From TrEMBL:
This is Gti1/Pac2 family-domain-containing protein. Residues 100-151 are annotated as: Disordered. Pfam families: Gti1_Pac2. GO terms for molecular function: DNA binding. It comes from the Eukaryota. The lineage of its organism: Eukaryota, Fungi, Dikarya, Basidiomycota, Agaricomycotina. It comes from Tulasnella calospora MUT 4182.
Amino acid sequence: MDDPASTQASEAQQQWTEPPWVGFLETTEDALLILEAARRRLVPRVTRRLADRERKLINSGSVFVFEEEESGIKRWADGLLWSPSRILGNFLLYRETNKRNPYGTPATRPEDPTPAPYPSGALSRPRDDLTAATGGHSTAGSSRLDRARERPFLGSLTNSQMFKEGGMMKKTFSLTLPNTTQTHHVVSYYTEADVEAGRLRTPSSLPDFAALEISPELLDKTHFRVQPRVEIGEDGRVRFR
């Protein structure tokens, strides 16, 4: 019988050659499915900080899962620079920035404590980009449509930061199990272009993931800032949005 301590030590020494999972987390259900898959060891958890060479695995579509006590990771560090966080449902969103923002103050560093969430702001895409996308005619109607289209993956991030052209978004989800000190985190990275082009699948769109029954302990209502919307799919299964 394997010794759990030696197994954990072996996992900690393992060198990552690919991300634990690749895709896009659109809904709360997607994050819960990843946590459930990690609980069943279908998706490997990160059990230590990534080495510098392993940070090269952080690309659009990379998804990482870790538990604080098991990994010893209190602050996820990726070596990139990010905007302050914004709330999107049960997620926090960050947008990759250049070294300094337009006002001359440093962008949020990856090892900094997570900043307090900002209130919802204006349109994510800079107005100049909107004008170009609409042939020079940026109307209120097109702005509303653009906001609705971008919200699932850009949230309410504004152009107050000097965003990196073609840079990534970081979307994080955290959950502490009831009556325990176990805090689980999911960290995902993606680009707007990859999501719009459909290059990244969601867990809930994949049959093997969608068939997983999410553990009741992960569905405790105290976990969520926004209670997931429950829907019954055409297959009769419960979905959490």
